[in-house]
Design goal:
gamma-butyrobetaine dioxygenase activity (chains A, B); 22 strands; oxidoreductase (chains A, B); NE0471 N-terminal domain-like; elongated; six-stranded mixed sheet; Double-stranded beta-helix; 9 helices; alpha+beta; homodimer
Chain lengths: 376, 376
């Protein structure tokens, strides 16, 4: 049976669940999150926190069946909480999120044959297949979709199963082929060392989709490297370089006739718990470093160290896309590159687009609703 | 005359300009930024840093007219730098950026009459007017465009003069009017306390455009508050609250039938120099705080403090938009709200869209090219 009591030493309600879980719920938190304070249709909070005293007090608490009832000193209507919901929202613990499926870092031993692979039709026809594919793609940061129709829209149609496409200065979609007067190295036939795209943007695009319409030229193989694996290895092998790259930002810039987009980014970005959540690495778009002169040499040492790791065959997975295949990867985690190709020997044409992490994770959450009883 | 010499104590070139400017340029920086290492068409860096030794050395340097020439110990082709360009890229100093025009914080004394105001036709017909308007809008975070055609596209046409529109789960554009089955409080007739939009997104939208097509109902006035002013005042008056709000993140969430977008954000966001660069404040979208129980009361104290400040008349500018006017504001700086309105007394319809800071700043930079000789 669930027990609840007022803590004698702090303005909190203490709850013990039969399964051994226990939690402390501050009075002000309980008042702010009273289910009665939310709009019934939009689920948004409408209760006004400024109308509540900071030292609001609960005078009595009662756990009864599946509900916790609280009586307030200010005489307001008692609040009623679902005890299962409360257990899922313990202060001090992150609530369950079906879109946090964990990351599986990989190195060359992943091999091209173990890159997650799915048929386009499965994604188009089945929500369950879509969900499983999204989770695999998030875990590895990389997957291949096969069996696409020979239609320039076929890849974008898959991407739109997740959400709307992220527009950038290169458009909603972009054509990766050799062009006259290129404004980006992707539009030349030269080799592209491993990089992440659009590090000059405040929010570089999340998942990238490259649908191969033709790849008949000599060369033009694709390379991938898990930036999370590189960063974690660097954290162990060279903590000084890791510290430098995760605390000092550098300027990035892209400019052409109609655009001049600049931003500062760190090469390695950590969340509040110190976990790597983003890699920004693009030597083409790196602007002129503006660090203090004495910081420059140690920074270059760290930066060059990562650059060398991203080219080390022990981190690389390499395969050549063929017409009807599409590679999908987390552009803020997995670096991509390509071998040079010879446009005289055949046509090479990839069609690309992006879907940001926000839409990607949202789709996982919504698809999880029918399967996961913990979702409210 | 410009003088340059090799520093005897460090691997750097020291340059003294006739105007008294001087700078130290590390050898590795000079090699990485050799103009010959960039693609002539895309301006992207193609030279490979891993092919350069970290202890690369300059053996001789010569300043001659407007150029600095460097001879390398490894016998590579000497590098040639434009001395004016070098002066604009001193290590340790941020390069000039025409899109950093400075912020003018404001409080109630700005008054509705001093909000920057421009005619739609000027923006549509003149690049110089567009540039001046963008700079004013960036400085104050708020402006009004008047004289729009009575056409639902008229406001979006102005926004597209800057760049493409930022799509969100509410669409590329959105209609702010009372609707049945609302999924957002904006789509009800109730009052909206001061907030910034879409704090549940990893990158909340930058500039917001609200084109008033009709505002004939009783009520429905607009409120604005400069979050930068609030934050700077809080930094002085309550450093503990400022510290809490600028270091501890809280969860935000929006969910409806097809969407579930969650992110953690800090209410006050600082850049590396400690300057306030973003405010995320939205009590409707704030998810259940998951801080440790002991942190909860001090956090609520700080959070409630800001909430009270954003409603304090000494920070507010209030005006009622009329048909043909559009308000434009930096959604990551200026909080907006509205008075309740009575849909029985008349029609109220605003049409909205967003353009992100990246596109906004890019447009300022590109427009500055013809006017500012410092742009390369």
């Amino acid at each position: 049976m669930t027990n609840a009591h007022l803590r004698p030493d702090a303005p909190m309600v203490h709850v013990d669940w039969p399964d051994g879980t226990s939690g402390d719920f501050p009075f002000i938190w309980l008042r702010d999150n009273d289910p009665a304070g939310f709009h019934p249709e939009t689920h948004e909070r409408v209760a006004d926190l400024t109308a509540v005293s900071l030292d609001i007090r609960v005078t009595k608490v009662q756990a009864d069946g599946n509900f916790l009832t609280l009586w307030w000193q200010d005489g307001d209507t008692p609040s009623r909480f679902d005890l299962t919901w409360l257990r899922g929202h313990l202060p001090g613990r992150r609530a369950h999120d079906p879109a946090r499926t964990g990351f599986a870092p990989w190195r060359a031993d992943l091999g091209r044959d173990r890159v997650p692979r799915i048929q386009a039709d499965e994604i188009l026809l089945s929500d369950a297949a879509l969900q499983d594919w999204l989770i695999q793609t998030q875990r590895h940061g990389l997957s291949v979709v096969a069996g696409l129709r020979a239609d320039p829209e076929a890849g974008m149609e898959i991407a739109r199963r997740i959400g709307f496409l992220r527009e950038t200065n290169f458009g909603i979609t972009f054509e990766v082929k050799s062009k006259p007067n290129p404004n980006n190295l992707a539009y030349t036939p030269i080799a592209l060392p491993l990089h992440t795209d659009l590090t000059n943007q405040e929010l570089p695009p999340g998942f990238q989709f490259l649908h191969c319409l033709a790849n008949e030229a000599t060369g033009g193989g694709s390379l991938f490297c898990d930036g999370y694996a590189v960063a974690e290895d660097l954290r162990q092998s060279d903590p000084e370089a890791f510290e430098m790259l995760s605390t000092v930002s550098i300027p990035f810039r892209f400019h052409d006739a109609v655009t001049d987009i600049r931003n500062r980014k760190k090469v390695i970005n950590l969340d509040e718990d110190g976990q790597v959540i983003e890699i920004c690495f693009n030597a083409h778009l790196a602007d002129f470093f503006d660090l203090a002169p004495d910081l420059m040499t140690p920074y270059y040492r760290a930066y060059r160290q990562v650059m060398q790791m991203t080219r080390d065959p022990s981190y690389l997975v390499r395969f050549k896309l063929t017409g009807g295949e599409m590679v999908v990867f987390d552009n803020r985690r997995v670096l991509h590159g390509r071998d040079a190709f010879d446009p005289q020997t055949g046509f090479r044409h990839l069609r690309g687009c992006y879907v940001d992490r926000g839409e990607f994770e949202s789709r996982i959450r919504v698809l999880s609703r029918s399967r996961d009883p913990r979702i409210c």
